[in-house]
Amino acid sequence: MRPDLDPAHLTPDDCFRELATILARGLCRLRDKAALTPHQTSAPQIVPESSDSAVAVPPDSWLTVHTG
User: Fold this and answer.
1) Pairs from 53-60 (Cβ < 8 Å, separation ≥ 24)
2) For residue 35, what pLDDT is reported?
3) Which end of the chain is more exposed for a tag (fewer CB within 10 A), N or C?
4) What's the CA gap between 24 and 34, in Å, rounded?
5) From CA 18, how far away is CA 13, in angstroms rounded?
6) What stretch of H or E contains 5?
7) Angle at 8 between CA 28 and CA 11, to 5 degrees
8) What is the pTM of this model?
């Protein structure tokens, strides 16, 4: 709402117009923001991990945890 308008002095039609203006501006901003954001049409590509990673485990290894 515009800072120069006192809601107590607005008619119901004026309130409706102000509300419609606020909503329209918000929708325009949302539309513009969506236009600026690149849309991703496919799943993100997974980069294969490097085999020289310190936490790399050969595929035939088993992790066993003993309790007690």
Assistant:
1) none
2) 78
3) C
4) 15
5) 9
6) none
7) 70
8) 0.47
The token pair at 54 is: 């310190």
> For the segment 5-58, what is each residue's pLDDT rounded down to a tens digit?
788 888 999 999 999 999 999 999 988 888 777 665 555 566 565 555 555 556
Q: 3-state DSSP call for residue 50?
A: coil
Contact predicate 7/1, CB 8 Å: yes
Distance between CA atoms of residues 18 and 5, nearest Å: 10
- Please enumerate in sequence order all residues whose Cβ is within 8 A of that of 50, keeping only pairs 6 or more positions apart, or say none: 56
Joined together, the tokens standing for residue 19 give 């509300």
- At 48 the pLDDT is 60
Angle ∠(14,16,24) on CA atoms, nearest 5? 115
49-to-43, 45, 46, 60, 61 alpha-carbon distances in Å:
18, 12, 9, 17, 17
